[in-house]
Design a protein that fits this description.
Shape of chain A: elongated
Oligomer: homopentamer
Helix content of chain A: under 10%
Order of helices and strands of chain A: EEEEEEEE
Strand order of the largest sheet of chain A: 1-3-4-6-5
CATH topology of chain A: OB fold (Dihydrolipoamide Acetyltransferase, E2P)
Distance between the termini of chain A: 21 Å
CATH architecture of chain A: Beta Barrel
Strand content of chain A: 35-45%
Number of helices of chain A: 0
Largest sheet of chain A: 5 strands, mixed, barrel
CATH superfamily of chain A: EutN/Ccml
Chain lengths: 98, 98, 98, 98, 98
Amino acid sequence: MLLGKVKGTVVATQKEPSMVGFKFLVVKPLDEKGAEVSGSVVAVDAVGAGVGEVVLYATGSAARQTVATKDRPCDAVVMAIVDTLEVGGREVYRKGQE
Amino acid sequence: MLLGKVKGTVVATQKEPSMVGFKFLVVKPLDEKGAEVSGSVVAVDAVGAGVGEVVLYATGSAARQTVATKDRPCDAVVMAIVDTLEVGGREVYRKGQE
Amino acid sequence: MLLGKVKGTVVATQKEPSMVGFKFLVVKPLDEKGAEVSGSVVAVDAVGAGVGEVVLYATGSAARQTVATKDRPCDAVVMAIVDTLEVGGREVYRKGQE
Amino acid sequence: MLLGKVKGTVVATQKEPSMVGFKFLVVKPLDEKGAEVSGSVVAVDAVGAGVGEVVLYATGSAARQTVATKDRPCDAVVMAIVDTLEVGGREVYRKGQE
Amino acid sequence: MLLGKVKGTVVATQKEPSMVGFKFLVVKPLDEKGAEVSGSVVAVDAVGAGVGEVVLYATGSAARQTVATKDRPCDAVVMAIVDTLEVGGREVYRKGQE
């Protein structure tokens, strides 16, 4: 999984039928200190994540292992909302205190 | 999934038989602000996307989860046409208004 | 899939038994303008491609979706020979006219 | 697999139900000399690894081939704790002697 | 597949049970001229490769398509030992003559 921050949303009405009903989140990857790094991905939301939240997302075939995304052309899924990130014995992120 | 812009097409008559009939699109990845980034991919079109359109494409095994591409040697598929991209509370792209 | 140019071949007699009989091609990836980019991959040939040809190759599990490569430890396959590449309304490559 | 060093942990209570009970480790990849390289990943712990240990982690669908992670949206797993790393005829790392 | 050179070995006694008995090789990727490039991977040996040999290795789910590695958390496998590498009409590597 990768750490990411939800930055926005994508709306797409014309799409593969099996992808109807999903919320597409624009996610920016974060490094282990919580800082944004280059690149971005559009991930299906499986946990009710909102813009601004720090999340974990899984990519590749793992992204089809949620109840919602099984057998769909989905290669990235937000599967957890991060409460705390502790690195090097120090808490570098706590939800609600950023 | 990744944001991309359809830049062109590839024609290939001599190919794996299971790939006959597909439209191959040259797609340039976009960052979360809609700007082109380095690299490019050739993706099968599953949604009737045309040159110039902003799309979502899936890569890896996810690219075989559309009705058209199942069990074929396809590792990238355009599976949605983007209507709007909203990042940081701002609409950075709307189809037909670029 | 990625655009590539076949640059050479690899011979390997000592190998996983299921890989006997394959032709291993050294492929250099190309960008959307047909220029070589960094990196290279060794792909199994599924279409009779020769050195110097511009091809499409698939990577990952897609590379096992040809009749030849099914269930083998193959992560890259040349699955099409490119006739034409058209980008931005301009033909940037035509087989036999490079 | 990649060499990595466990740098920290992630706590996430709101997540895909199948991921409950896992320990999420922040892992920094190492090069063949044992030096940290750029990037980081969050991997499920399958071997009882602790912060500061040098480990091997597998990514992609391989990360679902442990008893614990089967059929879950997990794309990275720590599946071994490194005792020794020998490169170029020289021992560059031995557990407990770093 | 990628060209690589075996640079060393990793010993790990505490690991996922299904990985017991494998030889872990530290492999440095090579470009199409046989020169080492950045990065390194730890691959399971499926062909009896030794330190110093030039090999082909497969990554991702392909790495589980050898008899030895099936259904195991293995994402990289050395599946061939290279005899010759010919690029641009020139032999750039021959085993035993480097």
